[in-house]
Specification:
This protein has 73 residues and is α+β, with helices and mostly antiparallel strands. It contains 3 helices and 4 strands, in the order E-H-E-H-E-H-E.
Length: 73
């Protein structure tokens, strides 16, 4: 199963995204992404299943928590 990394610039922002997703029934976890995904050394990612990506993106957008970018991995 493929995963989507929703990157953020801080751990706090990633924690907020993870909390909102979990509250809406979407399994999510925080990871430090590989350097090529993060593009910069200081980044965190919330990882969701590819099958939940569209729903996760909508939930985050509704709650004003947009990731820096989304990368399939």
């Amino acid at each position: 199963m493929n995963s989507v990394y929703l990157t953020s610039r801080s751990i706090t922002y990633a924690q907020r995204m993870e909390k909102v997703l979990k509250r809406n029934g979407i399994a999510a976890r925080i990871e430090r992404p590989e350097l090529q995904i993060a593009e910069r050394g200081c980044a965190y990612a919330v990882v969701v299943s590819e099958s939940f990506f569209a729903e996760a993106a909508e939930v985050l957008r509704y709650n004003g928590l947009l990731p820096v970018k989304a990368v399939m991995h």
